[in-house]
Amino acid sequence: MSPDHLLQRSSNGLRVRISGTSHVVAHVTPLLPAQKLRQTKVLDSLNELSKLGAANVFTSALRPREQQFFADLGFTLHEELFLLAHNFETPIDFPTRPSRKFRHSDWGDLLKIDNSAFPQFWQFDGPALAEAISATPRTRIRIDAQDGPAGFAITGRSGRMGFLQRVAVDPHHQRIGIGRSLVADALQWSKRRFVRELLVNTQTNNSRALSLYESMGFIKKHGGLAVLQWSVAS
Ligand SMILES: CC(C)(COP(=O)(O)OP(=O)(O)OC[C@H]1O[C@@H](n2cnc3c(N)ncnc32)[C@H](O)[C@@H]1OP(=O)(O)O)[C@@H](O)C(=O)NCCC(=O)NCCS
Question: Does residue 122 line the site of ligand 1, with CB under 6 A?
Answer without folding.
Answer: no
